[in-house]
Specification:
It is found in: Cell membrane. GO terms for molecular function: transmembrane transporter activity. The chain is mainly alpha-helical. The protein has one domain. It contains five helices and no strands. The protein has helices spanning 3-32, 38-42, 45-64, 70-93, 99-116. The radius of gyration is 16 Å and the shape is flat.
Length: 118
């Protein structure tokens, strides 16, 4: 596989991590504030960090699409985002993690492997 393709898959993975980090920062923005008005949320450093992560994600995803078909990239990145966010929300926020969620994360991972080989 050419280096450009490997680099594109790496950028795609980093893109997914950017979105996952943004989601977790949004959750933290809501948890860290006692006065949760729209203004206090959007001016919170956690919220601003989330926006930065989403911009990072968008840039990396755009670059990855220069070398990958969108029909493969979108399902793969979506799967990584879902599985990683579920697991990291459990680790960082103590959110409930069920056997069904673990099973689904395994299925998503298997799907990612299958999608990336086509």
């Amino acid at each position: 596989m050419p280096d450009a393709i490997w680099n594109a898959w790496t950028l795609l993975g980093l893109s997914a991590i950017g979105t996952c980090a943004g989601n977790l920062l949004l959750k933290q923005a809501n948890l860290a504030l006692s006065n949760r008005t729209l203004l206090t949320i959007v001016t919170s450093p956690w919220f601003i960090g989330a926006i930065a992560c989403y911009i990072f994600d968008l840039i990396l995803f755009t670059i990855a699409l220069q070398h990958l078909p969108v029909s493969s990239a979108v399902p793969v990145v979506s799967g990584i985002r879902i599985a990683a966010t579920t697991i990291l929300a459990y680790i960082f926020f103590g959110e409930h993690l069920t056997v069904n969620q673990l099973f689904a994360s395994g299925v998503i991972t298997a799907g990612i492997i299958i999608m990336s080989r086509t």
